[in-house]
């Protein structure tokens, strides 16, 4: 569990450092090349991923954590069969 916390902290620090670097180099202009539908799709995909991965906890189902390729779909299938 300590390793996961360390990995999350390292990821957060790396993301912040990347953002600060982009700010310092004034690379925010690159975001204008991303169209609004692309940004909306990425945001919706991230929200869906968080929702499905939290479903077992929200519903109180004691399901094992899925890992690997298509883990999101495996989690959704496990939740639906457990209901």
UniProtKB/TrEMBL annotation:
Residues 4-79 form the SLC26A/SulP transporter domain. GO terms for cellular component: membrane. InterPro entries: SLC26A/SulP_dom, SLC26A/SulP_fam. Keywords: Membrane, Transmembrane, Transmembrane helix. It is a multi-pass membrane protein. The chain crosses the membrane at residues 6-30. GO terms for biological process: transmembrane transport. Coiled coil: none annotated. It comes from the Eukaryota. Its main location: membrane. Pfam families: Sulfate_transp (PF00916). It is found in: Membrane. This is Solute carrier family 26, member 10. It comes from Mustela putorius furo.
């Amino acid at each position: 569990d300590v390793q996961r916390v360390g990995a999350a902290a390292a990821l957060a620090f790396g993301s912040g450092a990347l953002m600060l670097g982009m700010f310092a180099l004034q690379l925010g202009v690159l975001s204008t090349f991303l169209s609004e539908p692309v940004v909306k799709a990425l945001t919706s995909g991230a929200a869906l991923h968080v929702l499905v991965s939290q479903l077992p906890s929200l519903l109180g189902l004691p399901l094992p954590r899925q890992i690997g390729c298509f883990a999101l779909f495996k989690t959704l299938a496990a939740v639906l069969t457990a209901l």
